[in-house]
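Team,

Forwarding the record for the chain on the shared tracking sheet. I've put the sequence and predicted structure together so nobody has to dig through attachments.
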Amino acid sequence: MIITQKKPLEEIMAMVGNAKTVAILGCGSCATACQTGGEAQINELKSALEATGKTVVGTAVADYCCMALGVKGKMKPLVAANPDCIICMSCGDGVQCAAKTAPNIPVYPSNNTMFLGEAARFGVWEEACHFCGECVLGQTGAVCPITQCAKSLVNGPCGGQKNGKCEVNPENDCAWIKIYNRLEATGQLDKLTRDRDDKGYEAVAYPRVITLRGKK
């Protein structure tokens, strides 16, 4: 799940600026689960905007703001209402997806996109994946050193742990101790002694494209 946090209302209002009419697009998936872009949050933002004299000319909720075809359908009536701007209550990808359907209307984000996370318990998410593009979980016992280590070290610990805790954030267990314990439990400690190629970030050209229709 893509984890998002709401921007302060003051920041949203600053983006909207002198716009008199506003439309709002929410996301029925991740943002709804994070309580940053569902129906309740849309209504809350609508009320806040109207309290400052803005007119909300339309609202909609896309099933997934990152799905271009679905967003296009939800955005059509919002664009037709010709607002001065549109606020998208989703992750950053959803904002960009929505903006493509409204080439002549400013589209603003109401959220900060934080990370890909897993639900630790209701209302609490922990960062799980950094989208690095070169997954090493097969070599590290399914414990991600990029996200679990405060320094994102991929070739072993820094030596600064104390009592099994991270020196950067003492509340966190040392990722490489977790990796060692996991590899030991699964009989794969030999993986710690194997050479690893560099992550090779220089080989990545942004933005990346993945297609099932053949190489692009």
